[in-house]
Write a structure and sequence with these properties.
Helix content is 70%, strand content 0%. The protein has one domain. The longest helix is centred in the middle third of the chain and has 21 residues. Helix 4 runs antiparallel to helix 5. The chain has 148 residues and is an all-alpha fold. The chain is built from 8 helices and no strands. It is globular, with a radius of gyration of 15 Å.
Length: 148
């Protein structure tokens, strides 16, 4: 019984990174919102902060006014940058930032780390989990800046 409760708590407090990455690359508004809800319910961690930041920035496109879009984008940017600052050598977080920066509208002026992150990812992606390595390879196949 105790094992069941522990398993249930762990299941509720975790999220699928590969699912979040798929959603981040999609334009499915419902999936984006669902993933954000799941992340908000997950146990606090640097991973949660990074993914929540990236998906929050993605969700900015779903807002109606330019002001709302910028506010939501900035909130997400602050979360992702916080995770990266605390984990400067984390290839996975740099990958999330690269995906956002490569696809963000120029008006948000969020592109300063594209080349740095692409170079870092190219050099270090093999140290990631197999799930993240596959996501990076899949993304690189269509990326303009990430050449593996």
């Amino acid at each position: 019984m105790i094992q069941f409760v522990i398993s249930a708590v762990l299941l509720l407090s975790s999220f699928s990174k590969s699912e979040c990455i798929k959603v981040l690359q999609s334009k499915d508004a419902k999936a984006i919102q669902k993933c954000i809800v799941t992340l908000n319910e997950a146990t606090a961690s640097s991973d949660r902060t990074a993914y929540l930041g990236a998906l929050t920035m993605k969700s900015a496109a779903l807002k109606e006014t330019p002001k709302e879009k910028m506010e939501v984008f900035k909130k997400g940017k602050d979360l992702l940058e916080k995770a990266i600052t605390a984990n400067k050598k984390n290839t996975e977080y740099r990958f999330l930032r690269l995906m956002v920066q490569e696809n963000a509208p120029k008006i948000v002026k969020y592109a300063a780390n594209i080349n740095e992150d692409a170079a870092w990812i190219k050099e270090h992606y093999t140290t990631c989990s197999s799930e993240i390595i596959q996501a990076i390879k899949n993304y690189a196949a269509q990326s303009v800046v990430l050449d593996l």
